[in-house]
Batch of 2 targets.
Target 1
Amino acid sequence: MKNASPVRGFISSFVNGPWPWLIPALGVLLLFRGYPLGNQFWLAMTDMKIASGDASFVGFENFSFLFSDPNYLTALGFTILFTSFSVFGSFVLGFGLALMLNRQMTGRVIYRMGILTTWAISSLIVGYIWRLMLNESSAGVLNGLLEPFGIGPVPWLSDPNMAQVSVIVADIWRSTGFTMIFMLGGLQTLPNEVLEAAKMDGAKGWQTLLYIVMPLLKPLIAVALIFSTIATFNVYELVLALSSGGPGNATSTVGFEMYRTAFGDSMNAGLGLIGRGAAMGVSMFLVTLMFALIYIRAGVFARDLD
Amino acid sequence: MSDLKITGLTKSFDKLEVIPPLDLYVPDGSFTVLVGPSGCGKSTLLRMIAGLEVPSSGRLELSGKDITQAEPADREIAMVFQSYALYPHMSVERNIEFGLKLARVDIEERKRRISEAARMLQLEQLLERKPAALSGGQRQRVAIGRAIVRDPKVFLFDEPLSNLDAALRAKMRVELAELHARLGTTMIYVTHDQTEAMTLADQIVIMNKGKIEQMGSPIEAYDRPATRFVAEFLGAPRMNVSEQEKAKSSGAFALGLRPEDIGIVQNQTQNSWQGRVRLVERLGAETIIYTDTDGFGDLVVRAKSDVQVSPNDVVHILPDLSKAHRFGEDGNRIDP
Ligand SMILES: Nc1ncnc2c1ncn2[C@@H]1O[C@H](COP(=O)(O)OP(=O)(O)O)[C@@H](O)[C@H]1O
Ligand SMILES: [Mg+2]
């Protein structure tokens, strides 16, 4: 016998549909993604401090403060500079290495592993490694190497501009491995006969790269750039370990600024401000979201292509 | 004159010798078909001619000019790949134009050549399309168009029809033959399909394990196969070859009889053999009869469509021994 009740019908279609199977995954997602995110939005609208712990609602006050906070604005400026150079640099380098390693050569696997390792190491460790290398006394690896040539000591981390360059170079070093593996994967999907056809058509290596390889990898290049933009924009451990944002706040990024504002020394009047830090976090979230949306669009674009 | 002369060409991948020293002459304007089973080195040979693979040793001469070391694009040789290898992001027109652009042919001349090729290959309506929006046969034609516009001295084809369905393959085969007749350009064509080889070639080159077993006109290879391998490779159904008593009594190690050189007769005669029918395939135009024949073994007979036999019948088989092929233990033909 059939029961025609709409409620029963709804329940049975729910139980027999996909939803029961999705509940565990959705539950985990809500608990570990949804809750912290919601909580952060909430905190961003309070004046919670690390020292006191209690908080009252202040609306958008934290956000409006950010627009006039020189530390935040400086950090935002440097983050944009840092992200642009690092993403561009690691892409050019990573793609170049991928092109090199895509050929038959001895020790190819070893090179690949070696270069990928830089990406697998924690950013914090990368920061410390570079800090040791850039140590400005002659104990530092780089200055130690330059000393016999009468160069230096180079103020790698004590000169503001030099420190910015150092942080960017260290981040390029860290992220090149990712781009390389990503693009290498793309290169290996290219149909060999198409590249050979280009060769028969008289294309030189660079012409094949420009007219065949790059256009075919366009969707993948977009994805690689967006991934590394997101990862680079949010960086803070590297800065923390390498330069602590200094000298002054020359190398402070938004991520680092957020960390310092929210969890920094609570004796210092300007720091330990959970609410304000959360607001910075929200601003980072919005930028990341924007890139993620572009990424999703790029994904659609990639499907259109073939 | 665009004749191709190959002397002492070899190719090894690491220690694996794929092509032992090989000599081949492709006359000007010839349609030469390299045929052989998969993995016998046809593509490797073709790719060395194209310049996509570096020979381990030997020499390639085109129109008397040494091209062994020349870049692929400098050889005046065009190639049509098995997968068509069209540039997926370019329209048909751009695909055809690409090589001309790289060769810095001026725009008027490019337009002229593209429209000529498009007309010849019936691509005029498709010039704006991307390869993904084309059927297999259309892609094939674009690949040919891309080869034609460069006006090469030699066309190379590597199994160009193997990705097409049977009906289209038959149609494209005719189109290719017509194309060759119209252009008169030297063509070297690789296939593992003996029907394609027989129908297209004016010179057929049968390869086995990197070696040339026989070359010459297709009919000559069919009628007088130089080796047992060639005998069994050309023709469908393939030649019956037996090493049993009938071979011995004919003074050969192996005796070969084409299915069409055997008759089924009503009455036993002095020269007839006796066999039992295993299977009858009625194809309409003809009937293929599989038998087990005393002193020969498996024997396939090609008979008229109205032949009256059924499985398990015992039949009298009359071979035309004047058309039998005899082979020695080394696989080479024994002439009477
Ligand atoms: N790049 C390569 N490296 C190693 N072995 C190869 C390579 N290309 C072809 N071969 C080998 O050479 C033999 C001939 O291959 P191929 O010329 O493609 O045969 P065909 O085209 O007649 O089917 C095969 O055994 C194949 O495995
Ligand atoms: Mg092949």
Target 2
Amino acid sequence: MPRILKDFLSRNGTGPGLVMLGLVLFWTVGLIILPQLSMLDFSFRPNLPPPEMGGPKDVYTLENYKYLIYGPEGGSQAYNTVDLMVFFRTLVAAACVTVFNLIICYPIAYYLGQTKGNHIRVFALMLIIPYWINEILRAFALRIIFGETGVLNTIFTGIGLFDTPFDFIRNDYALYAGLGYAYILLMIFPIYNVIESLDHNQIEAARDLGAPWWRIHWRVVIPYAKPGISSGCTMVFMLSAGALAAPQILGGPSSLWFTQLIYQQFNDSSDWPQGAAYAVVLLVTCVLLVLAVMRLFKVNMGDIGK
Amino acid sequence: MVAGVGVDLENLWIRFGDFVAVRDANVNIKGGDFFSFLGPSGCGKTTILRAVSGFLEPSEGNVLIGGKNMKGVGPNKRPTALIFQNLALFPLMKVWENIAFSMEIKGASAAERRKRADELLEMIALEGQGDKLPSELSGGQRQRVAIARALCAEPHVLLLDEPLSALDLKLRQHMRTELREIQQRVGITFIYITHDQGEALTMSDNIAVMRAGVIDQIGEGKTIYNDPATPFAASFVGENNVFRGKVKRVSGDRVLVQSNRSGELLARISTANLGRLKEGDNAMIFIRPEAFELAKTGTEGDHYVSARVINEEFEGNVFNIFMEGDGGKEIKVSLPNLGQSFDSHKGQTMTLKYDVKNAVAMPAGVLATE
Ligand SMILES: Nc1ncnc2c1ncn2[C@@H]1O[C@H](COP(=O)(O)OP(=O)(O)OP(=O)(O)O)[C@@H](O)[C@H]1O
Ligand SMILES: [Mg+2]
């Protein structure tokens, strides 16, 4: 038995230790790894009606992946430009949402983390309470704000800023706002957590040595907050790229989110292998992107957990 | 090298809501001085320092640095550098980057910064340690890095907020000497905050004794020790024995006090209180433990004290004798150990003699509570 396991069991008692271990194993293996593996398996198989499954036609193939790149066989175009465009647009948009979110959330997190007093608790509550409302309702609430006859348009045409109502939805403003808003807490709290532990004297020391405010942030606060920033950005990016409800409700009719394509394949075309292949591509690309960015900014994997 | 400039506090008041943290402070610190603010915890020392460095605007009055009024000048624009109580080194920057941070702000190249940092590292005897992180240094080394970082900014005034309090005794004593040396080498003004009178006395040119937001006395260490202005200064700086009583007669700078339990005592009125004692006033007389010598038992007179010995201890360089004193407090007597034999007198009454110039009298007032 490895030492770490022995230590774990002796610390928690053999009985409870085994139960805990079993639950964790069930959770990671049973609920995460196995279903994902079966998805991976699906993605390499042809889409067959149930009677033919396991039959002679059920062989491993790259067809589903090829489809994303080349489109249907004998199609009019050399590449599957529509799906590929959606794919890249989703990644770029998710990255934009992440950066945008970071720009908004960093000052909030800094303020919450470095200010003392009871009003901070009230602030934090005000941030959390909207999340008691479910995602769909929040998305529809944004539709009310951004819609053609919505609050913003009424105000802007009212004060004469616009002559005709502006279509926030068709232009995807509503979508970005919705995605940004949906994950704001996931950005604020990790950053807040680290900044709260930053000794205020360090900020004062930098100021005393002559640093203007931006340099204090650049050299003292941001390097210190890097673990929080990277875990916030990772979560927001992953969840935005994988979001479904917000694009469904707030996206313009012409702009699909890649998850919507996946959803259509699973649901509308009942082509599970094709959907699985798209999902795998999204997952792997996101993970690789995150790892690359982490490497670029010299963030360790261990920091993310902080 | 930059020359030290003077710092003046003029009628400085600092309030937090209704609470007065500093009350009407008037201090003139000469350029190049090592000046200490000495006082117990919570008396407003840090508050004064923050007002000088610019993190806090005075409620009333002025802070002048080099004769210039600092009103509205931010901490990053003042010719001061502050060393924080907990040092506040930047943990993610290497030691040399920490030291040269102020140059980075001014846009110096990495090579210039590195060169200056190495010079300063040599000055603080940490050559070759520039590439470490602060966490890889010992407490005393970190202390010196904090000093180097502050000096690198070429301040005219260096402000130090109890910088030695986190160190152990040996290191603290070593750093005292070192700080004093550094100050004399760079020649700038040091304003040093401490609640440790030993630190203040050994390092400073001048000391301000503070009590609850009020400055009681400003002067050289020797003056404060030998000629305290208030009962607080007398009892806070060094050990002291207090005798309370009523003034019987005043003549010149001498005063005869009818003490509560030691008979009539003759004393010298402290300089700051000349002319402020008259017959019938409540007075306090302070006599240091080392100012007593043994006299023949039963001798009486206006510079003799007799009391029963409660306890005795041997401290190496001195014998300490504790005797029944006034108001439940013991009288402490320290006799230098000159190799003489010393018999126990526990329980007996002993008579002590003192030189009148070493007994300092002043109007009764608040004592420092230990
Ligand atoms: N921001 C503030 N708001 C309210 N009261 C304050 C504030 N800062 C300091 N005080 C009060 O002012 C008084 C003086 O504080 P200060 O920090 O100057 O003490 P100090 O002499 O430096 O003590 P120490 O030796 O313990 O550091 C204290 O009673 C403190 O409670
Ligand atoms: Mg303090």
